[in-house]
Structure formats: C-alpha cells, structure tokens
C-alpha cells in the first residue's frame, strides 16, 4: 500500500466523519459500492482522478483538500 493512497484514504475518512456521513451515505451519493470505498479509505485501492473529483464534490471539499 502506497503512502499517498493511505493519506488519501485517511483524508476521505476524516472529512466524511466530520460531516457526520457514513460510508454508505457517501457511496449512495456517488453510486459506488461500499466495499470499494472501504478499500479506498484503507489505502488498498487507488481511485481514478475522476473518482477523486467526484468524492471531493460529494464531500463538498476541493480535490486539494483530499490530497494534502
């Protein structure tokens, strides 16, 4: 697992929890499988730039916020 994938997943989880959203809530907004999102948050999957952009929109943050 790459450090950047882990950092991205940690940021998604942190922001999602701060907005009082479950993984299921986020997945329903995105039309993604919850198991996939779980793998992204744990750093096991590397989402495409398009998916990262959609996650940022669903969380109402910038892509930069997810990647920092």
From TrEMBL:
GO terms for cellular component: cytosol. InterPro entries: Cro/C1-type_HTH (IPR001387), Lambda_DNA-bd_dom_sf (IPR010982), TransReg_Diox_bact_type (IPR050807). GO terms for molecular function: DNA binding; DNA-binding transcription factor activity. Residues 12-66 form the HTH cro/C1-type domain. Coiled coil: none annotated. The keyword Lipid metabolism does not apply. Keywords: DNA-binding, Transcription, Transcription regulation. PANTHER family: HTH-TYPE TRANSCRIPTIONAL REGULATOR, HTH-TYPE TRANSCRIPTIONAL REGULATOR SUTR. This is DNA-binding protein. It comes from Candidatus Kaiserbacteria bacterium RIFOXYD1_FULL_42_15.
């Amino acid at each position: 697992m790459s450090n950047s994938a882990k950092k991205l997943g940690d940021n998604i989880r942190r922001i999602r929890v701060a907005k009082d959203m479950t993984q299921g809530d986020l997945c329903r907004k995105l039309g993604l499988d919850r198991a996939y999102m779980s793998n992204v948050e744990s750093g096991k999957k590397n989402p495409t730039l398009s998916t990262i952009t959609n996650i940022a929109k669903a969380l109402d943050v910038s892509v930069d916020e997810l990647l920092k």
